[in-house]
Design a protein that fits this description.
- The chain has about 200 residues and is mainly α.
- The chain contains six helices and two strands, in the order ααβαααβα.
- Helix 3 crosses helix 4, helix 4 packs antiparallel against helix 5 and helix 5 packs across helix 6.
- The relative contact order is 0.14.
C-alpha cells in the first residue's frame, strides 16, 4: 500500500513537471509570435478592400459581361421553349387520340412521347451546363482583369493585402478609407475607353 502510494506521488510529480514544461513552452511560443506580429513588417501592413459586386455593376467590362451572359442565356432559353412547345403539342395530340387508339398503338405513342421527353430533359441539362460554363468563362476573364488592376493599384499605393468585401465575402468589417473600389472602377473604365470597348 505504501509503495503504491509513493508510486502515485512520483507519477503525479512527473505529470506536473511535464505540464509545467508544456505551459512554459506554450507561453514562449505565444510571446515569440507576439514579438513577430509586433515587429516592423506587420505594423507597416496596409490593407485595401474591394467590392466585387460594385465593380461588376459600375464598370463597362462588368456591364458587358452581364449583357453577354444574358444574351447567351436568352438564346438557350429560346431553344428550350421551342422544345417545350413541341412536347406539349405531342402530348395534346396523344391525349386526343387515346380514345380511338388500340392498346398496342397507345403503347407505341406513349413510348415515343417518353423518348422525346428524355431527349428534351437531356437537352435542357446540356443547355444548363453550357450556360454555367459560359458564366464561369466570362467571370474568370473579368476577375483576371480586376486582379490585374487591383495588383497595379496595390503596388502604387504600397498595399500589403487586398481583400474582398460584400454580402458573400468573409470580411465582417473594414474602414471605409481602405476601400479602393472607386479607383479600380475608374482604372477599368479607362482601359475600356482606351480599347474602344462600346
Amino acid at each position: 500500500m505504501g509503495n503504491r502510494w509513493n508510486g502515485c506521488n512520483i507519477f503525479d510529480s512527473w505529470g506536473i513537471a511535464v505540464m509545467h514544461l508544456s505551459l512554459v513552452f506554450f507561453i514562449s511560443m505565444i510571446l515569440s509570435s507576439c514579438a513577430s506580429v509586433s515587429g516592423e513588417a506587420p505594423a507597416d501592413l496596409v490593407i485595401g478592400v474591394v467590392d466585387p459586386q460594385r465593380i461588376l455593376v459600375e464598370t463597362t467590362k462588368g456591364q458587358r459581361l452581364t449583357d453577354d451572359l444574358n444574351a447567351f442565356m436568352k438564346d438557350r432559353q429560346t431553344l428550350v421553349d421551342l422544345e417545350q412547345r413541341e412536347l406539349r403539342e405531342l402530348e395534346d395530340a396523344l391525349r386526343a387520340q387515346m380514345t380511338v387508339l388500340s392498346e398496342s398503338a397507345k403503347k407505341i405513342k406513349e413510348e415515343q412521347f417518353r423518348q422525346k421527353m428524355g431527349v428534351y430533359q437531356q437537352k435542357v441539362a446540356d443547355l444548363n451546363r453550357e450556360v454555367q460554363e459560359k458564366q464561369q468563362e466570362l467571370q474568370n476573364e473579368f476577375r483576371r482583369n480586376v486582379r490585374d488592376v487591383v495588383s497595379q493599384i496595390a503596388t502604387n499605393q504600397n498595399l500589403g493585402l487586398v481583400v474582398e468585401h460584400g454580402p458573400n465575402s468573409g470580411t465582417l468589417f473594414h474602414q471605409e478609407s481602405w476601400d479602393i473600389s472607386a479607383e479600380v472602377i475608374q482604372a477599368l473604365n479607362l482601359e475600356s475607353e482606351k480599347a474602344g470597348t462600346p
